[in-house]
Amino acid sequence: MKIIEATDLWTQAVERLSLEIGEENSELWLKPVEAMSLEGGVLLLKVPNKFFSDGIKERYQKRLLAILRDVSSSDIGIDFRVERDLTRVLPPSDPVPEASPQSDFALSDLNPRYTFESFVIGESNRLARATAESIAKSPGTQYNPYVIYGGVGLGKTHIMHAIGNAMRRQHPKARVLYTTSEQFVNEYIGAVQNNALEAFRARYRSLDCLLIDDIQFLIAKERSEQEFFHTFNALFDSRKQIVVSSDRSPKEMSPLEQRLISRLEWGFIADIKPPDLETRIAILRKKAEIEHFSVPDDVILYVASSVKTNVRSLEGSLIRLKAFQSMTGAPLSVDDARDILKDTITVDDSNPVRIETIQRLVALKYSVDTKDLKGHQRTASITLPRQVSMYLSCVMTDQSSTDIGRAFGGKDHSTVLHARKKIEKKVEEDPFFLELINKLQADIKAAER
């Protein structure tokens, strides 16, 4: 085939895979890759460095081979050619690493929407937010390490991304990396399997700021925990900033490596509590402003008074109200809100919704097996109910996206977030689909009573 045909084949494969892994992961891992040729049934790809080729092999190669087979109707292999010049893939604000272990550094997967400006301050999070802003201005000094802990959906991840985004603006050459403990563990395992520990350590220990989410999932994984302990020491000794989040305080963790807890307690520990009524009202107003959605004050007060668990539930309620108004075009009233949210707002939380119940009832609705929801089939008949199940797990339970991913056969948290966004969009655009989601939620809550 000609080069243009190889390029077309790769473009189609990237478009297909992007739908599954999300645009942010696609921008990070796939967009910098360039198809060079297709000869002898092997697609030659040009990558910026070995970190990209190793990352693609570990994360996406199996799925890419299946997509290439589907697109080309033949078995296609993949090979990589390393191009060391990173100036073509890094934005101007980033340093272009010289030939050293640091050349394997990849850009942070920071969400640009999560900033200090978009974070609503209340008594429940004021200290955590103020500390985070100080860290962004002077990283690695007074508050190091910085530990944020609290329940699900209270804004820990938002604050971490805000630190990273502010640091990148104020210190353009800083090496800032946001990751989850699950990603850290997976990368460490891959490095061990591929004899690439030196590159793994060089990548993490050359950072100026490490932001690692859900640290509780790294605890008690013996080798990974020890590796993080040594990474922590290397960064701390170099006066580099370390920020971690957890669903519990360090003293409530049970690590195999007790020294890790003492290290975390060296720094500043801040907790985030559920927002009070005034903060919930402010969050809803801020979200409505961002969404260009006009909501009467009495409706805002009703939702803020009824949804007390976390910020995600608040925002999910607002999305449902927006979908209703966009379909009807009529102004919202409290009675409308009460009717629209009757299946999601409960007075008694004594019967929490279980992911297993969601999976069972969604599988029943779509006439599929619950095992299929946890599998890796990508057919439309399985993908949609799987995404619906993940979406409902996000909005009806207090589980993190990482926990939800585990309940679906070990899916990555980014897959869960992609599913949530996909279903949210479909709910907004399709009134019949919204009705189906409402009915499923009612059935799930009834099953848990």
Contiguous helical run count: 20
Spatial separation of the terminal alpha carbons: 61 Å
Principal-axes shape call: globular
Helix/strand order: HHEEHHEHEHEHHEHEHEHHHHHHHHHH
Counted beta strands: 8
Radius of gyration (Å): 23 Å
The average pLDDT score comes to 81
Q: Structural class, judged by helices and strands?
A: alpha/beta
Enumerate the strands of the largest sheet in spatial order, edge to edge or round the barrel.
Answer: 5-6-7-4-8
| Helix fraction bin | 40-55%
- Strand percentage, roughly? 5-15%
Characterization of this structure:
This protein is α/β, with parallel strands linked by helices and 449 residues long. It is built from 20 helices and 8 strands. The strands form 2 sheets. Strands 5-6-7-4-8 form a 5-stranded parallel β-sheet, sandwiched between helices. Strands 1-2-3 form a 3-stranded mixed β-sheet. It is globular and about 60 Å long.
